[in-house]
Amino acid sequence: MEKKERGTALLAVKGFFAVIAGFFADFGRAVSEGDAFVKLSLLWMGAGYFKRKQYIKALLMTILEAAAIIFTVKFAMSYVPKFGTLGTVQMEKVFNMKTMKSEFNDYDNSFTILLFSLFSFVVWFAFLIVWMRNVIHVYELQKMAEKGKHIPTFLEDLRAYKEEKFHITLLTLPVLGIAIFTFIPILLLILVAFTNYDQNHMPPNSLFTWVGFDNFMSLFGGGGLTVTFGYAFIRVLGWTLVWAFFATITTYIGGILLSLLLNSKNTRMPKLWRTLFIVTIAVPQFVSLLLVRNFFSNGGIVNTICSNIGLTGFLRDIGLVSTSYIPFLSAPGWAHVMIILINIWIGVPYQMLIATGVLMNLPSDQLESARVDGASKFQIFRKITMPYLLFVTGPALVTDFVKNINNFNVIYLLTENVYTTTNQAMANSQAKEVDLLVTWLFRLTQDYYNYKMASAIGIVVFVICAVFTLIAFNRMIKGDREGTYQ
Amino acid sequence: MKVTKKVIAAAITTAMVIAPAAGVQAEEETISLTVWGAEEDQTLLKELTDKFQEAFPDQKFDIQIGVESESTAKDTILTDVEAAADVYSFASDQLTDLVNAGALMNLEEVGEALSVAGRSLDDVKNDNVEASVEAASVDGSLYAFPRAGDNGYFLYYDSSVLTEEDVASWDSLLAAAEKAGKKVGMTFASGWYNASFFYGAGFTTGLNEDGTTAIDWNGTSPDGYTGVQVVQSMLNIAANPAFMAIADGDISNQLATGELCACVSGTWDAITAQGVYGDGYAATKLPTYTIGDEQVQQGSVAGYKFVGVNGFSENAGWATVLADFITSEESQQEFFNQRESGPTNKNIIDSEEVKANIAIAALAEQSAYSSVQMVGGKYWDPAQTLGELIAQGSVSADDEAAIQETLDTLVEGVTAPVE
Q: Which CATH number goes with the domain that contains B338?
C-alpha cells in the first residue's frame, strides 16, 4: 500500500512535467510542420485564423498582440530595464519661489520598479503561453482543413465555451484573481527577501537594491546584523513550535471531551450548555482577549483578588514569584502557560462543534455490536470513538497546527504592551520570549520598517508550514485509511 | 545683427520684468492642500484654515482636513509618503524617522516662502522656546514648526497627603507615602521615562550620521557619576515598598484606583489626577534622587508636538505658509484656550493664564531639567528591558559587575547598526 501512495505523489509530479513537455512538443511540431500561415502566426497572431476565414478571431488575436506590444513599450519598458539595479536616479528637488512649488527630478522608485517589473513578467509569461497555444491551435485548424472537416465559426466557438469548454469560462475569473491577489504578492515578498529594503532604504526617498542571500545569512547567525538576531530567531522558532503543538493538542482533546460530555445521555439540557460555550465564539476575539489581558495584567483584577486572599504572599513565600504581583502575562514561563490556558478557553468551543458533528455520525451499528459484546465505555471510546474521530478530523488537525504557527491574534493581543522581556539579548533584536515568528515579523515591519528581514522570516515560516503539511498529509490521508480503521 | 541682438536683449529684459507678474497670474490656480491633525483638534483646525484663507484673499485654496493622531502619524505617512498630507502634526519622537524617509521638508529650503506672510524662518526660531526649536532641527536645519510643548512628564501629587518638602526628593516622597499607606507610581519599563534618571546624572543619547544611536550610559558622565550608580539608585527606589512600577500606558488606570498619592505622568492625565486628588490636586517638577550621599535632580524628556510639511508636497511653498500659520502665536493661544495645549511660544508661556494652569506650570518648571531625546529605533526595546529588569529587581544593587554587564549589553543593543 505504501508503494502505491508514493507512486501517486510521483505520478502527479511526472504528469505535471509530461504536460509541459507535451505542450512544447506540440508547439515544435506546429512550427515545423505547419504551412506558411501557421509560421506567419509566429509574427502575426491572426494569420492562421485569417487563412481559415475566422476573421473575428483573427481580429481579436491581432488586437491582443497589439495590446501586448503597447503594454511592453508604454508600460513595461519604463520599469523592466531597471529591474537589474532597481533604479539609479536618487530623488532630488528644488523649491521654486516664483511658483511656490517644489520641482522634482524624474526619480526612480525601487519599490514601483520591483512591483511593476514583476507584473510585466507575469503578463509576458501569460502572453507567451497564449502565443504558443495560438500557433498550436492554428496548426490544428490546418489539419482540420486538410482533412476537409468543418471549421467552426466564431459563434460556434463561443457556444463551446458555454458547453464542453464551460470549465474554462467558469475558472477564468478565479484564476485571474489568484494571479493578481495571491501569486504576485507572494512573488513580491520572495523578491524583497533578496534586497536591502529597510529603514535606511525606503522608497521614494532612497533606493534599495539586490543583496543576494545576505538576509538569510544574517538570519541564521552569519553576522552582518546584531549577533543576537540568530539567537532570537532560534528562540522564537522554538516557542512557535511548542506553542503550535500544545495549542493544537489541548484544544483538540478539550473539544472532544467537552462534546462527549454534552453528548452523554446523563447531561441535562445539552443545548443550553452548547449555546453557552458558543457564546465565546460570538464575541469578537479581540474584545475578549483584550479584556482577559487586562484581567491578568500586573495591576489587574485577578492580581488584586490573589493578593487579597493571600495567594500572592504564599507564592512569594515559596519562591515562585519575586514581585509584589503575580506576573501572569509578564514573565516567561508564567506567560507561556497562561497563553496556552487562555487559548484553550478560546479554542475549545470550535473543536467542540466539529467533534459534536462527527460524534453524531458515529456508526451506531458498531457501537451496538460492541455493547452487545460487553465492551466497557472506556473500551468503546478507545477502540471505536477515538479512531473514528482521528480518522475524520485528522486533516483538520494538520491545518490547525499550521494555523497555530501563524496564530497572530491570541499572542499579539494578550502580550502587546503587557509583556516586557527581561532577556537583553532578545530585546536587542526587538524580540520577546512570547513572540511567534508572525508577531515578531509584524513588529519588525510595523515598528522598524525592516521589510527585508520580515520577508526572509516569512519565507522560512512558509517553508516550515509547507514541509510539515506535506509530511503530515502524506502520512494521514492515505487513500483507503477507512479500511485500516475498520 | 546688432539690432537683432538688441531686440533679443530687450525681449529678455521685458520677459524678466513680466515674469513676476506672470507668477502672480499663475497663482490664480487653486492650491490644493491636505492637513492632518488629531481627531480632537479637527474643529479648531477648520477654524484656523478658514482664517488662513481669509488672510490670503488673492489666492484660491482647496484645503482638506483629515484625522491622523499625532502619535501614529509616522506609521501612516511612511506607508505611502507620496500620498500623505501636505501639512501634518506629529509627536517629536518621530522626527528622525520622518526626516530619514524624506517625509519632512527641510524648512531652510522653503523658508523664503514665508515672506508671502511677511515672516521669515528666523521669526519662527525666535518666537518659540529654544529647546523646541532644537528638538525640531536635525544638523542645524529646522524641519518642523513647534506647536505644543506639553508632551513631557512631571510629578502629580496629592497635597492633602504630601507636603512640598516631601515631594522634593524620592527619599522623602517614598517615606511620606509609606507612612500614609499609599504608593508612588512611575513607569520604569519605557525608554522614554527611565532615561530621566540618566539624563539627570549628565548622561546623554544622540544620533550619529548613519542613523545609529550614540549612548554613554555604561561609562561615567561628565558630572562624574557612573551608569552603575544610577542603576543602583533606581534599584533602591524600585525596592522601596511604597514604590509601584507601572506598565507603560497604565498610569491613568492606576491613578484612578486611588492607591497612588503621587505619580510621574504628563498633561494627558491632568483630568484624571484632578478627579482623584480633588482639592489636593497639585503638580510640580520631578524630585531629586540619591547617588551616594548626593542629591541629583531627576531629568526628563522634553516632548513636543510639531507641524511639518511633507517633503513630497508639490505645493511646498503654500504648505509651509499654512504650517507656520497653524503654529503662530495666535493659533497657539487658540490651542491653549480650546484644547488646554501647552504652548511653545515664548509670549504665551509667560502669560498669567498659562502660569495658572497647574499641570502646564509644573511642566514649565521641569523644563529647566529636561532634554531633547535624540535616539534611533534601536533604542526602545533594550531600554524598556533595562527598566523592567530594574523594576523587577532582577539584578542586585550590590552586584556592580552584573549591573555593568547589563549596561554594556544595553549599549551594545542600542548602538547596533540600523538595518
A: 3.40.190.10
